[in-house]
Amino acid sequence: MKPIRTAIIGFGKIAEDQHVPAIEGSGRFEVAASVSRQGKGPAPNFTDTAELLASNIALDAAAITTPPGPRFEIARDCIARGLHLLLEKPPCATLGEVEELRRLADAKGTTLFTTWHAQHNAGVASARKLLAGQRIRSMRITWHEDVHKWHPGQQWVFEPGGFGVFDPGINAFSVATAILPAPLFVQSATLFFPANAHTPIAADLAFTSPAGDGPLTASLDWRKTDGEEWTVEIETGDGATLKLLDGGARLLLNGDEVPGTSVGEYPDLYATFARLIDERQSLVDVEPLRLVADAMLVARRETVEAITV
Q1: Mean pLDDT across the stretch 244-254?
Q2: For 78-114, what is each residue's pLDDT tens digit?
Q3: CA 198, 201, 204 angle in degrees (round to 5)?
Q4: Catalytic hit among 89, 108, 129, 149
Q5: CATH number of the domain that residue 130 is part of
């Protein structure tokens, strides 16, 4: 079968660490070009997307791994070129941009895949099956990590459109919306903004859900310096306890480990992308982004100590 020639646009750490190995190991894709403002990435490398699209390189698809701010215009131009698109999370800076890309892709007949890599972790599918049809007595999300470790020198995360602590926290939302048997809605939120930042460094949230009978909460924090904690803990109406650890990589049911079913986040992500292209389908999931937008709308704001990335 002819490989799907793919450009990686926005070549950086996530592209190097995750996308390239997944593409090379997929058996369906090959890296045909890359774009990086620093001029780094697999050859042929371009410093501008317009230059790539104006070249005579044969392309079938693109994986866009830039920060969310410039992603809409890049994706729009790629769709116009007829490329199938994989968008890193979060897919765009706003819900309106995602909806417009969906419309453009549908009109062009290309695949649009808004990826949430945490949903492809080993424990997520098993948790979804176990929670199907259940009442939820409680849910507690704890998503704590160190911004200096995961975004060193990246001031853009604290600029408008940079998402702040919601950049990792949206992974938690993607897991929760994937496994719960009914939608989540933001009831209240407190966002903690560094004195010199436009986006929050921490957030406390409360949710409601048609399937929920008790407290549904989330704590997101970028100030944890002694290791990461990425957990989702759920108690069902019949008293069972589920705990997703390591961002969804491990699942405990009543304290016992449940075997995982995933080949890995990014390998599974690219397998899904290949299937969507084969079927000429799109998969556009905006629920995690909606929760971020809703939190911004209803939140109280508190100012905390200034931050230097």
Answers
A1: 96
A2: 999 999 999 999 999 999 999 999 999 999 999 999 9
A3: 115
A4: 89
A5: 3.30.360.10
